[in-house]
Give the backbone structure.
Amino acid sequence: MLSSDQPHHNAEYVTDDIRVLPPTFITLKQIDDCVPSAGFPQRVSLPFFSNAVQVQFSCDYYDKDHVAWAMYVFYEEWNRTYGDEGKAVRHAMNNLEIQWGRESRQVSRVYDINGNFLRTASVVGLMLSPTSIWASVENNISDTSLVHELVHIALKAGCGDADPDHEGESFECWEDHHSVFIDNVNNMLNEKYGL
């Protein structure tokens, strides 16, 4: 892989104790991996993002470096595309909790991508709060709703509203180009990094 294929590093966030070797971070400070014998759910710190964690139900999904790399690519692309005035999105990413689930959830009072209100629906991802998301696992990270949920987090941090109706008309922040952005980031994660 050529260095020109990688997202451009913002020198403000790459420090002497972190080295980037896509899709892995090498850190001087030891960050513990998921431990199969430690019980579940298990909180695992994510490298590069100061307080970010993933909550795992099994160590079989996903390596902390790969999740952090997906977040890193997302943020770099978001910042390049939309900017990050006041670093609000970066702050949200630094303090994010990602909960992984085994299967979809039945929820009430949600919107589909077109803004249609649904009394009940089976979902594969949710923004739980401005600092927490949930997503069900798939074979690859790029197949999950992680990037979709990160858009909700970024919109909440940068626009002021997570925009639950997506491309609908009831909320102001989510536009159709955000849906295209999700596809582009997931394609990059899959094609460039095998995630």
Summary: The mean pLDDT is 88. The first strand starts at residue 18 and ends at 21.
